[in-house]
Amino acid sequence: MTPFQNTLYTGDNLYVLYGLNSGLADLIYLDPPFNTKRLYSAPVGSRAAGASFKDMWTWKDVDEYYLGKLAINYPALAHYIAGAGAVHSKAMMAYLTYMAQRIVEMHRVLKASGSLYLHCDPTASHYLKGLLDSVFGRDNFRNEIVWSYQRWTAGKLMFQRMHDIILFYTKSKAESKFNVLMEPYSGKSAHQAKRFTQIVEGKLVQNYTEDNVREKSMRDVWDISILNSQSKERTGYPTQKPLALLHRIVKASSNEGDIVLDPFCGCATTCVAAQQLGRKWIGIDIEKQPVKILIDRLSDDAGMFKDFIATDKLPVRTDIQAIAPDSKSVKERLYREQNGLCNGCGHEFDIWNLEIDHIVPKSKGGGSYYENYQLLCGACNKKKGDRPMEYLRMQIETREKLLKQRIVFGE
Ligand SMILES: C[S@@+](CC[C@H](N)C(=O)[O-])C[C@H]1O[C@@H](n2cnc3c(N)ncnc32)[C@H](O)[C@@H]1O
């Protein structure tokens, strides 16, 4: 099988995206956590039991060094995020930085003719739209799709919140592909052309011919039921989306054989929809649970597609040459982007006192390319060794806590 196709990656999508070739995907659908400050867990006994993910944001979730990088490559975006932080909260700023980091990579991975659909809700949709405008360009905004549904909720001091938002962007205006989908006219106008009168049981009755239901091109408000507790499709995975919703998106913005990518794939609804419609797919989720659910979903669709890969190894780009980590120009560029600071302890150093480090260690599949490099001082680099960045952060936080205690207790 061609690399990167029909593969479910388990891992942080940022590092998986770093390893995917540029211009690979025809369509990206993402349904990230919405910053709702909730912990989502699957019910015990469901196919997804044990699965959970958090949706609360702090600076700890963000690669802080990335903000510095953003300020150089996307100055407007960095200003925008800082503004959202001032208007809303630090948590929103952290969330948007986290999303920006990934959306920039998704934009790179998208083909020139590709489309991206970002699924969110009114908690952050207005902030995310500004972020997408900054990365994709406001001219490449296509639709704000309203997914409208019904569900039982208790009354509150406002209207019931009964919709999600899906922001649709294309990478370019001229080259983008779009298949117009149709929907029937509603009410009387659906049948106007073919109304006729019949005598049924001695009475005159107005009737319509079935085969002539009138259709119009689809609106940006979609009425699709959410999965109720009795639905056969339901896996129990928290926030699972209906296949009908994904079928629409896949049909509109891809053709058979195209590649559909979902970097927050949950129980792999997008991958299943793509496969059912003859597309190739790539799914990524940080949790291990989706692999099990996907295998279950696939065996339910007996024989439909067994030919796929599930892996926790990071992919490695084949479209760029590896850059040697000791290259002088790489070091100088990183030094500028990190403002001369060590990416571990945050202290300022001269360039010759900083060392190039693989953010995702080579032993864990991290590639030798620019996005995977950072500068660390000798002490931080030694401490980090072959471990991931989180380890170094934990060490630094513990040390800072101890230092603070010493200051408080006057040690
Ligand atoms: C809202 S759910 C997606 C639900 C999915 N659309 C479905 O139909 O099942 C968000 C998913 O993003 C995953 N996730 C959160 N952060 C991630 C990250 N950094 N990398 C990959 N997946 C992540 C969570 O584990 C969760 O499964």
Proportion of residues in β-strands = 15-25%
Strand adjacency order, main sheet: 12-6-7-5-2-13-14-1-15
Number of strands: 17
Please tell me how large the radius of gyration is. 25 Å
Largest sheet: 9 strands, mixed
CATH-assigned homologous superfamily of the largest domain? Vaccinia Virus protein VP39
Distance between the termini: 62 Å
Shape: elongated
The number of domains is 3
Structural class: alpha/beta
Alpha plus pi helix count: 11
Oligomer: single chain
The CATH topology name of the largest domain reads Rossmann fold
Which small molecules are bound? S-adenosylmethionine
What's the helix and strand layout?
Blueprint: E1 7-10, H1 13-18, E2 25-30, E3 38-41, E4 52-55, H2 64-73, H3 75-87, H4 90-109, E5 110-120, H5 125-136, E6 141-148, E7 163-170, E8 182-184, E9 195-200, E10 203-208, E11 215-217, E12 221-223, H6 243-253, E13 259-262, H7 269-276, E14 280-285, H8 289-300, E15 309-311, H9 328-337, E16 354-358, E17 373-377, H10 378-384, H11 389-409
Helix pairs in contact: 2-3, 3-4, 3-5, 4-5, 6-7
